[in-house]
Each structure stands twice: as C-alpha cells, then as structure tokens.
Amino acid sequence: MLKSARKQQKDPEGRMPLAEHLRELRNRLLKSVVAIIVVTVVALIYYKQIAEFLTGPVIDSVGCKKGEGIGGEHTQPCAQITANGLLAPFTIMLKVGLMTGVVVSSPIWLYQLWAFLAPGLHSHEKKYALGFVAAGVPLFLAGAWLAYAVLPTTAGALVGLTPEDWDNLFPADEFFDIVTRMVIVFGLAFELPLLLVLLNFGGVITGRRMLGWWRGMVVGITVFAAIATPTGDPLTMSLLAAPIVVLYFGATGICLFNDRRRRRANPDAGLSDDEASDLDLTPAAIGEIEPLSPSRGDDPEDPGPTRRNGYDDIT
Prior knowledge:
Region (Disordered): 287-315
Mean pLDDT: 77
Number of strands: 2
Distance between the termini: 71 Å
Low-confidence stretches: 1-7
Subcellular location: Cell membrane; Membrane
Structural class: mainly alpha
Membrane topology: Multi-pass membrane protein
Oligomer: single chain
Strand content: under 5%
Family: Belongs to the TatC family.
Transmembrane segments: 29-47, 96-117, 129-151, 178-199, 211-229, 235-257
Shape: elongated
Order of helices and strands: HHHEHHHEHHHHH
Largest sheet: 2 strands, parallel
Helix content: 55-70%
C-alpha cells in the first residue's frame, strides 16, 4: 500500500521532513512509471498500426515505389526502411511501444510532477499551478506533433543530398531512435516558456528581466535546437527553434502583464528585501490639544503622596 505523506501530516505551509519528501517522490515516480507501463503494454498490442502511422508520411515523401527499389531505376533519390537482424523487429516493437507510452501518458506524469511541487506553493499560487498543468499537456503534445509533422520534410531534404548512383536504406531501429528523440525533445522544449511563467508567478524572476535576456535566449535556443535535433540539418533546427522563440516572447508578455497586475495590487511588491519603500514625509496638521488633568502631587485639593526630586515615590 502506498500511503501519501501528506495524508499522514498536513502543514499549512507545505513543510515536511526529508523522509516524507523522499516517500512522496517515490510514490509520484511509481505512479508515473505505472501509467507509462500500462499505456506501453496497450501500444505493444497495436504495434504494427502505430509503426505504419509513424513511417507512413516518410515513406510517402521519400520512399521508393515498387519496382524502383535497390537495383531499380528511379529518377530521383528515394529510400527504403529495412529491419536488420533477427531481433530487430522485437527491438523496434519495444521502442515504438515505449515512445507511445511516454507521449500518451503525459497528462498523468505531468500531473504527478505538479502534485509533488504544489505543496511548496502558497495557497494563492496553487490555483495558477492547475492552469499550468492544463497548459503543459497541450504544449507537450503540440511539440510532439510538430516533430511528427516536420519529419517527412526533414527526410526529403536529407535524402535529396544523395548522389545519383547511390541508394538509401533506413535501418528501422535507427529511424525510430530519431523519431523518439525528436518527439521527446520537441515536447519538452515546448515546456520551457511555461516553466518561465511558473517562476514569474512564484516571484523568482520578473518580466522585465526576461525581456532583457531576449538576445541571449534567442542564441541559447538556437544552440539548443542545433544540439537537440538528431538529424542536425538547418531545416529541422529552425523548425524547432522558431516556435520556442515565439513562445518565449509570449511568456515574456504574460510575465510583464502579471508584474503590472502585481504592482497595482501592491506597489512594494517589486522591491527587494534590502530596498526601502517610499514614505510620505509631508507634515500632517495637528489637531486640538487635549487638556491633561494635573497629577496627584500638583493638585492642592488632593496632595497625594509626597514628591521627592520630581517623582511621586521614592524611586
């Protein structure tokens, strides 16, 4: 039985001992892994249909037609997808099933990631975290779809570099390695702007600072796209970098709007801990002076205790 650490001990500020954090992390990881395994098992049953769905656009784009394969006559470069080795079909089946499991189960493991981080947020920030999860799943799926959509164009550009007297063979295991890397990399890369917005809503960075980073971020995103794309061609790199740059500026706009809203609600929200807030030093009008009753020692009708050295008692 997996017992949630937060059901055993609840803290209004989300504080837990280290052992409870590790237990919570174990539970969240186990739930994510179970979800991926379940979807993977289902995907293995429909492995052939999924493989045909993934390879279909590439075959339509650069595949050799029947009679124009290896040794045949063809007017333009084309390619064939092959399975090399006795165990290749089994290995490919596992790769296709695992990739499908990671992509399809993304709503579950993204929610588990949020559920692990949510206790560290304040109560007014948790409502935004739910919106981040709702936006994170479509962004990840959009990145995965973009990788699938640009794959035929990328394959056509690369196969077009083949000399006329050469033939192309695409080993299926290598092909699905490229597809898996592109789908995962594109999907996670689309989460970067969402992470920046999360940090802004948590008060870690400001929209003005993000706007000042735009030159370095554009260069960094371009370098990341060049390293992350398995094919390494400029077309695929540009198709990955351009949407992330657009999403980055969109995230910057959201952060600037949130900073403006925060300043309206609290003018001192943007001040650091060592920075003093503005004070109104305008002298205020003095009201009427209230008369004070004389002390007991100064009233002749009520002499009270004897005053010594201006004090009512011996002290």
